[in-house]
Amino acid sequence: MITACPTDPGEIAFAAVNAAFGSLGRVCMALDGQFRVRHASDRLDALLGPGAAARLRGEPIESVLGPELFGPEGPLRQALLAGEKREGWRALLRAGRESRLLSATAVPLQHDPHGVCDPDAVYLVVLRPSEDDPVQCTGPIAGSGVVCRSEPMTRVFRLVQTLQHSEATVLVTGESGTGKEVLARMIHAHSPRRSGPFVAVNVAALPDELLESELFGHARGAFTGAVRDRQGRFESAQDGTLFLDEVGDVPIQLQVKLLRVLQEHTYERVGDDEPRRTNARIIAATNRDLRRAVAAGTFREDLYYRLRVFPVELPPLRARREDIEPIARMLLSRACARTGRELRFSPDALRALLSYDWPGNVRELENALEYAATVAHGQTLQPEDLPLEVLGTGPRPDGAPGVAGVASARPAPVGAGDEKDAIQRALETHRWCRAETAAALGMSRSTLWRRMRTLGLE
């Protein structure tokens, strides 16, 4: 790191670092022990205007990158004080009226034995442009927050597009976690009802004795605890859309009343005989096979056809694998926005995501990436950061054995000592050839190298 003299070895060292990081599009800043900017690379001028690097020297780093990261309780300051590095944290670079969203890596500076570096430079912060690149919907309806590359989902979007000028009742079917409510909201947002309310009710989440009151409301004194009149969801959805999620769980005795609303657009509150009208548009959804329910006598056939005016079936995630990567990138971006991280996928992690069947569909994918974003230490997600069931080494959510994927041959987690012995035996068996050992252990060469380094097997 440079010193005050422009010709001393420290300046030459920082100039070399400056040029190296600058050629990679990185900004380098050295901090002193009080977390003040001691040196800043000239590339800051390209980001924030001429003279920015000179102006920031001597400034507290928290005034440059914000107290959220570098304040007294900030996670990056605390990590540096503990002698730890942190990679891939989102940071907003501030300088006057200018600001840029960047990814920050902070590390304690290790000084060389020859004393070339500035002895007062204690920490190093490296910034790179953020890869916050929201995935755009490529289907017929843009701006909906839904990702579509596959032909099955493209067909769904085409169907939705035909509904833009319609108020027909829609029945959305598909496995749990496929995004039925997201689709329902998209239909509402692109319909003549878009200026009205979108009211959602999960039928399966309510006891039978409360569901009727929830849907239609109740009059005061209708039952114990009914101390005042209460409007139901049909009334709340007036001039808008009522979304009935898990409609297949509506009890048979309530199906008659629901059918009447669909046919006559009238209903009565519980405990009241005054007819009320509703113009709410109905979108229903279910993960059940309603045809079988009709055949079994648990769902009324006339109600089924009243709901199924415009049927839309959402395919499971495993039937549209082209969508997995863009959805994963979008969900990871959201998870990073909540945690302040800036993460990316390694090729092996993406391969693991693409190899898994996702029985829980998009919801399971979202949970898996939330988990990975929490446990990842670096700025690149590795296969070992993903839940075990995704790697094929843990039970699936549906209780089935793990699905064989890119890492299905990975051994189950063991203690550090046992893992070290297992990896060392595998290395000796394959004459310390990392490529053969990694293949035998069901992991990538880079993962094997990291585990060897951690376990002291280099």
CATH class of the largest domain: Alpha Beta
Structural class: alpha/beta
Widest β-sheet, arrangement of strands: 2-1-5-4-3
CATH topology of the largest domain: Rossmann fold
CATH superfamily of the largest domain: P-loop containing nucleotide triphosphate hydrolases
Number of contiguous helices = 19
- What is the strand content? 15-25%
Uncertain ranges: 1-6, 132-144, 401-416
Write down the Rg.
29 Å
Overall geometric form: elongated
Arithmetic mean of pLDDT: 80
- What is the architecture of the largest domain at the second tier of CATH? 3-Layer(aba) Sandwich
Described by strand count, sense and barrel closure, the largest sheet is: 5 strands, antiparallel
Q: In total, how many beta strands?
A: 16
Q: Tell me roughly what share of residues is in helical segments.
A: 25-40%
What is the CA–CA distance across the termini? 30 Å
What is the total domain count? 3
Commentary on this structure:
By secondary structure, the protein is an alpha/beta fold. It folds into three domains: 9-129, PAS domain (Beta-Lactamase, 2-Layer Sandwich); 163-315, 3-Layer(aba) Sandwich (Rossmann fold), CATH 3.40.50; 411-458, Arc Repressor Mutant, subunit A, CATH 1.10.10. 39% of the residues lie in helices and 16% in strands. It contains 19 helices and 16 strands. It has a five-stranded antiparallel sheet with strand order 2-1-5-4-3. The protein has a five-stranded parallel sheet with strand order 7-10-13-6-14. A hairpin with a 2-residue loop joins strand 3 and strand 4 (98-108). Helix 18 (434-441) packs across helix 19 (445-455). The two termini are 30 Å apart. Residues 1-6, 132-144 and 401-416 have low confidence and may be disordered.
